[in-house]
Amino acid sequence: MDQNELKQAVGIKSVDFIQSNSVVGLGTGSTVYYMIEELGKRYQAGDIKNIVAVTTSSRSEKQAKSLGIPTKDLNDVDHIDLTIDGADQIDKNYQGIKGGGAAHLLEKMVATNSTKNIWIVDQSKLANTLGSFPLPLEVIPFGCEKTFADLQKEDLHPEFRLNDDGKRVLTHNKNYVIDLKMGEITHPHLLAEWLDHQVGIVAHGLFLDIVNTIIVGYADGPKVIDNIR
Length: 229
Ligand SMILES: O=C(CO)[C@H](O)[C@H](O)COP(=O)(O)O
Fold this sequence. Notes:
The chain is of the alpha/beta class. It folds into two domains: 3-123 and 208-217, Rossmann fold (3-Layer(aba) Sandwich); 135-198, ACT domain (Alpha-Beta Plaits, 2-Layer Sandwich), CATH 3.30.70.260. 28% of the residues lie in helices and 25% in strands. It is globular and about 55 Å long.
């Protein structure tokens, strides 16, 4: 099985957790793509009825709408029952890094407004400690060189994320992404607290104490790790 097949298997499996008559948060990324496709199939077949989706990117919104899945803005629902999203790295304590697709601000807002969160990943995303995957930040363009310099002073090895044309990546909210290539993150809570207090940083990709269930793709099939918190 190649990596895409593992992603597809966990994406399909995760739809078993979506119940009729619920509000579902839809994450972003190549693994989530397979989950939305499967949800679309089961919704169209009538196996899952009366759901509303809250999406975390225009990509996921477009895909959900193309499959006939009704969507609402986060402002227009009073809660989300379950959000299913991908992740870039998950450590042994089930803390995660997200934002490889630059959608972590919306993903964090949707995740923190959800009763339950499921992450779907292939086995390559599991690690003992976070940090070998660069940590994404969403920063506002105003004063971003100052923000960048502060990150350098802290020895966090920041790099602006660039598109193929060499221009800075823009998020949904027209902010920039800075990736921290700092290596091992030994104290994720301390780092998250420091980042939370930097004025120009709108969101960082540390998703701590958020996930309830993880579905991991292995060659012999998806494994569900439940009741994490
Ligand atoms: O956080 C994310 C986007 O901001 C994605 O969930 C994460 O990058 C995983 O993506 P993929 O499933 O394509 O590997």
